[in-house]
Design brief:
13 strands; 47% helix; 367 residues; 6-stranded parallel beta sheet; Rossmann fold; alpha/beta
Length: 367
């Protein structure tokens, strides 16, 4: 029985930890022994619920000596055939901790960087980008979660012959759901899911919705934002300043995202950058039509027939797309159906797990 250690530097509700849990469950079902190594947080709790062994290790900055020692000890004790590092923090700390170990194969998955992603601090951005070269030096193989990430990594010097694209998989529970039709006379629900941070561009979305209400005051809709993050206070003030606080609702974290998606008529994501777009994929799986940023990763995910693309920096373009979908029920239904079929065919959780298992077998066969 092969043993796989999955190391994540993030234990939140976001895309990378969700991916780690999905992969761990799939590997366990396929007969692998799995250990998750991650900071304290939701990923640990979910691993407990799934009866997947885990080591909870706080992970600080790039030279967190305590984390280095604990990661090294956990991996040595488990003695895996493969250590699979997920994301830059896990890759940096994990590969420093295990760089001299030759008894197992090392794989790194990049979940964040594309050409559209930038940090506010240019010096720290350059530090992180240099850290990517460290992954290339000490790994046996590297994985990108989308073609957009792959292009970026190749531009940063990653070797094509040791780099695969394995998109994130969408939990099949979302595919079992369908939108709930609203009785006529009730407002339609628009929604977004994700961390309330600068990259997600909620400010641009809110400004666009203010334009919608100004241009078409009779359109009856509400907008729900699911998630938490550092910009919540700023966004709440912006909503009041734009005078749309009667239609915008901050939901925070919710127990069942799928249940909330069922009540949405349109899903919105106008991020400046996405490595894959997990929340968009989940909305598509339910059958909710999407309006998304015209960026490579979301083009790859949504395809030509399952959504409307907009420039995230042009609020008037976003507003026009919202008005178009709000006014056209048949278009909403057509886009929703196309999205559901696309996720089922191209981005299922089962496909992601099988592609990863195939990669493990390939890496283990290599000398």
């Amino acid at each position: 029985m092969k043993k796989i250690a999955l190391i994540s530097g993030d234990s939140s509700y976001s895309g990378a930890p969700t991916h780690v849990l999905q992969l761990a469950r799939g590997l366990k079902k396929a007969g692998f022994r799995v250990l998750i190594i991650c900071p304290p947080g939701p990923l640990c709790k979910n691993a407990d619920s799934a009866k997947i062994p885990h080591e909870s290790i706080p992970m600080g900055g790039p030279f967190d000596r305590r984390a280095l020692g604990l990661i090294d000890r956990a991996i040595r004790k488990f003695n895996p055939d493969i250590a699979h590092f997920q994301g830059l923090r896990a890759g940096w700390l994990g590969l420093i901790a295990t760089r001299r170990h030759k008894s197992f194969k090392k794989i790194y998955t990049e979940h964040l960087w594309t050409k559209n992603y930038h940090l506010r601090n240019p010096a720290y951005e350059q530090f992180q980008l240099r850290g990517l070269h460290f992954m290339e030096r000490y790994t046996d193989w590297n994985v990108a979660v989308s073609e957009a990430v792959k292009k970026f990594l190749i531009a940063r010097g990653f070797r094509k012959d040791r780099l695969s694209v394995i998109p994130n998989g969408i939990n099949p529970e979302f595919l079992r759901l369908s939108p709930i039709k609203k009785p006529r006379g009730l407002p339609l629900i628009l929604g977004s899911v994700g961390s309330l941070n600068r990259v997600k561009n909620y400010a641009g979305m809110l400004k666009a919705l203010a334009q919608v209400k100004e241009k078409e005051p009779d359109l009856d809709f509400h907008y729900q934002i699911i998630g938490e993050g550092p910009q919540r206070s700023y966004l709440e003030k912006l909503v009041r300043r734009l005078k749309i606080n009667h239609i915008v609702h901050f939901q925070g974290r919710v127990e069942s995202v799928g249940e909330r998606l069922q009540h949405m008529s349109i899903f919105l994501n106008v991020s400046f950058s996405e490595s894959f777009g997990l929340a968009v994929g989940e909305a598509m799986a339910v059958g909710v039509p999407v309006i998304v940023s015209k960026i490579d990763s979301l083009k790859n995910l949504v395809g030509r027939k399952a959504g409307i693309f907009v420039n995230p920096r042009k609020s008037d373009e976003i507003a026009e797309a919202v008005i178009k979908l709000l006014e056209d029920e048949k278009l909403r239904e057509r886009l929703g159906n196309a999205g559901k079929k696309r996720i089922e065919k191209e981005f299922s959780e089962e496909k992601m797990i099988q592609k990863t298992i195939n990669l493990y077998k390939k890496v283990l066969r290599a000398k």
